[in-house]
Amino acid sequence: MKMRLDEQTIALRAAKEFGDGMVVNLGYGMPALCANFIPEGRTVFFQSENGILGYGPLGTDEEKDYELINASDQPVTLLPGMCFFDSAASFDMIRGGHIDMVVLGAYQVSEMGDLANWGRPGRPATGMGGGMDLAAGSKQLMVMMLHTTKEEEPRIVRQCTFPLTARNCVNRIFTDIAVIDVTKQGLVLREIAPRWTTEEVQALTEPKLIIAEDLKEIEL
Amino acid sequence: MPVNKIYETCDQAVADIFDGSTVMIGGFGSFGGLPINLIVALAKQGAKNLTIISNQGGVGFELSKRIKPEGYQDIAILVQNGQVKKFIGSVPALGGMPPTSPIEKLHGEGKVEIELVPQGTLAERIRAGAGGLGGFYTPTGVGTRVELGKEKRVINGKEYLLELPLTADFALVKAHKADTFGNLVYRGTARCFNPIMAMAAKVTIVEVDKLVQPGELDPEAVVTPHLYVNRIVEVPR
C-alpha cells in the first residue's frame, strides 16, 4: 500500500491556506489540528462556535481549564487580544459572513460541492452542531477528510448518500492523498501526495477529476 | 426593597419545577458552563415529562470520564431517570463517542423524542423568544432535511427558512459571579448558551461560583442584566 498523509500532515497542508489577518473557524475533529500549524510570520484569529475569538495553539489535557476550550472540547491557550461572547453572537459572526475561512471534516463531498458531515447510518441521535450554519455563512469552505472509507470506498462522490449539511458550499478538499478544488466545471485535482499517480487518485474518487495543468506534489 | 433572589441550596431553587415543564439548560455540552449542581438537584427532585432545550444531550457519567478524568454529571442523568419526554438541541449525542449515552439509547427505544436544530438556529430561536419576536428567516438548513415542513422564502435572491422562537418555563444557567440583584458575569468559554437562555425563560435559576454585593461588579462588564434573573445559588468552586 502506498503512503497516505497522516492527519497532522493534512492539517499542516490545509493551514497553508490561512492568510495573514484572517478569521478562521476550525470544525470538530481533524480540522482543529490546524491551530498548531499557522504559517510562520502570519497572524490568524481562530473563532470557535462556543464563543471565543483569537485563541492560541491547543493546550494540554494536564493543564486543561474547562472554561477555556474550543467547540471540539480541546483546551486552548490564552493569547493577548482574545475575547469571549455568547452563542447567539458567535453565530451572528458565522452565519453573517464575518468568518473568512472555515475548515470542516466530512463523511462525503459531492461533485457539486455538497457537504455531508454530521449524520451517519445507525446514529440518528447525533446532530449537526454548528456545521450547517458554518457551511451556510462561510466565505471560503475547506474540507479536510480521508479520501476513502476504511473499505476503500470513495468519499468524494457524485451524489451524497449521507444527510446533507449544505448544498454547493465546499470550495477546496484536502485529503490524505490529494488537494481538489470544486469548480463550476467539476472537480479539479491540484495536488497529489508523493508517489501517487493521477490514475490511482481517480480510481478512489467517484466523479471524473479534471487534472490541473500545473498539477504538483502536495507542498508541505 | 428588591425581592430576595438568594437561595441556600440548589434543591430549594428547583423545587417548583413541575411535571411537563420546558426547561432550558445552559452551557455548551461538556463540563465548562454547565449548571451541574442544578441539574443534579432537578434529577433528585424528579419532575417528569420534561422538554429539555440544550445544545447537547449529555454523555452520562461513564462517558464523561473521556472529557474529564474524574467524571461529572450532565443532562444524561435526567434522561436516564426517565424525566425527559423531548429534547431540543443541536447535538443530542456526540458522533465521536460510542452510541451508549442515555439519550441515544432511549431515543433508539422510542422513549425520548428529539428535535434536531442547527446550533446557530437554536441560539437565534432562543434569542427571538427572549426578545419577543415571532421568528426569523435563516439560510441555515436550506436544501437539507432541516427545511422539511418549514416556510421557505426568497429574500434578495437567496433562499431562507422561517424558524420560530423558543421560550421556557425555567432556565438553569451557570455564571461565574452574580451580585445579589442578579447581574451576571461569566468566565471564558463557559458563557456560550447561558446568557441567551437566562433571557428566554419565565423563571431563570442561576448557579454561580461566587456571590457578591451590588457595586462589586463592573457595570461595563455585566453580561446578563439582573432583571432576567430570578434565583441565585452560590456553589463555590
Describe this structure in words.
The complex is a heterodimer of chains A (220) and B (237). Chain A has a ten-stranded mixed β-sheet with strand order 4-3-2-1-5-8-10-11-12-13, with helices on both faces. Chain A has a single domain, classed as Glutaconate Coenzyme A-transferase, CATH 3.40.1080. Chain A is built from four helices and 13 strands. The two termini of chain A are 21 Å apart. Chain A has 220 residues and is an alpha/beta fold. With 237 residues, chain B is of the alpha/beta class. Chain B has one domain (6-234): Glutaconate Coenzyme A-transferase, CATH 3.40.1080. Chain B is 21% helix and 27% strand. In chain B, the strands form two sheets. In chain B, strands 1, 2, 3, 4, 5, 9, 10, 11 and 12 form a nine-stranded mixed β-sheet that branches. In chain B, helix 6 packs parallel to helix 7 (194-200). Chain B starts with 5 loop residues before the first strand and ends with a strand. The chains are: A alpha/beta (220), B alpha/beta (237).
Key descriptive features of the protein:
heterodimer, A: 220 residues, alpha/beta, Glutaconate Coenzyme A-transferase, ten-stranded mixed beta sheet, three-stranded mixed beta sheet, 4 helices, globular, B: 237 residues, nine-stranded mixed beta sheet, three-stranded antiparallel beta sheet, 7 helices
Largest sheet of chain A: 10 strands, mixed
The number of helical segments of chain A is: 4
Sequence of secondary-structure elements of chain A: HEEEEHEEEHEEEEEHE
Strand content of chain B: 25-35%
* Largest β sheet strand count, sense and barrel closure of chain B: 9 strands, mixed
The low-confidence runs of chain A, each spanning 5 or more residues with pLDDT under 50, are none
- What is the CATH topology classification name of chain B? Glutaconate Coenzyme A-transferase
What is the CATH architecture term of chain B? 3-Layer(aba) Sandwich
